[in-house]
Amino acid sequence: MINKNGDGGADAGQPAVRAHDLRVRRGGREVLRGLDFAVPAGSVTGLLGPSGCGKTTLMRAVVGAQKGVTGTLEVLGRPAGSAALRPRLGYVTQAPSVYADLTVRQNLEYFAAVLGLARSTRAAEVERVLDEVDLAARATALTRNLSGGQRSRVSLAAALLGAPELLVLDEPTVGLDPVLRNALWGLFHRLADERGTTLLISSHVMDEADRCERLVLMREGRVLAEDSPPALRARSGVATVEEAFLALVAADADNEKDNAGADNDNAADDTRHREA
Ligand SMILES: Nc1ncnc2c1ncn2[C@@H]1O[C@H](COP(=O)(O)OP(=O)(O)OP(=O)(O)O)[C@@H](O)[C@H]1O
Q1: Which end of the chain, N or C, is surrounded by fewer C-beta atoms within 10 Å?
Q2: Where is this region: Disordered (predicted)?
Q3: Model-level pTM?
Q4: Which H, E and C letters describe the chain, residue by residue?
Q5: What are the tens digits of pLDDT across the range 145-190?
Q6: Range of the domain at 71
Q7: Residue 274 covered by a domain
Q8: Most ligand 1 atoms within 8 A of CB, residue of 53, 171, 219, 245 to mutate
Q9: Ligand 1 centre from 57 Cα, in Å?
Q10: From the CA of 205, how far away is ligand 1's center (Å)?
Q11: What is the total count of domains within the chain?
């Protein structure tokens, strides 16, 4: 896809994110347990799974903010966490990370300066992202006086500064009304279609799955499946991604039971051998 910076990052045909045997330990426990997946460049890819399955941990790893990562994790053609990736990524955390005592515009001016955007382009860039998230009319409002959904959009606007090639968005539509949710999904697809931006978007709401071109379905620190929504539905012969996910979970649980059974059989064999 498009590599705006032309600096040897994501090449045509190369995925924007590629993971192989990716593992993360948190609090003495392995919370990502050997993930293999790819995020195609220029795609809107959904990361779906129940609460606690590891979506945020995976996103933190992708943006280089997670400790205890092993295995392969390449982002825009470089190892995750490389300093060179910093200006090429936008990350929006679940909790809006903006300053309550600054206005919306002041927040964005501050983030534009921190990001090192050229002084001459900063003002125009701030106005552009304000328009993109539909907050131009609230630009002079103190952030603390905004609604939760508006504050989330200020965070999103900050992540859009500098037109990053990869946007990592952790549940960006939580708490938004259906009209706003629809508008944001429209923006996500415009960014992908018009700018070639890759978007990795987490959600635990399955009805958002069909808005994505590709899905990575997770459960308990593992990838259950990665495919397009129609392919996932067809594979399980069901009408919705939610049903496909439930079918995959059931198959996965059966597998685990079989493996546990096989382990017990092996243990029993060992005991018999020792007793013999
Ligand atoms: N700071 C931490 N220390 C230890 N374990 C953690 C920490 N943060 C999260 N975990 C554990 O890591 C696992 C994955 O958590 P993570 O936040 O990545 O899940 P998630 O899928 O994003 O959940 P949600 O949808 O609720 O945000 C969970 O079992 C969680 O308890």
Answers
A1: C
A2: 256-276
A3: 0.88
A4: CCCCCCCCCCCCCCCCEEEEEEEEEECCEEEEEEEEEEECCCCEEEEECCCCCCHHHHHHHHCCCCCCEEEEEEECCEECCCHHHHHHEEEECCCCCCCCCCEHHHHHHHHHHHCCCCHHHHHHHHHHHHHHCCCHHHCCCEHHHCCHHHHHHHHHHHHHCCCCCEEEEECCCCCCCHHHHHHHHHHHHHHHHHHCCEEEEEECCHHHHHHCCEEEEEECCEEEEEECHHHHHHHHCCCCHHHHHHHHHHHHHHHHHHHHHHHHHHHHHHHHHHHC
A5: 998 888 989 999 999 999 999 999 999 988 788 888 898 899 999 9
A6: 15-88+166-252
A7: no
A8: 53
A9: 6
A10: 17
A11: 2
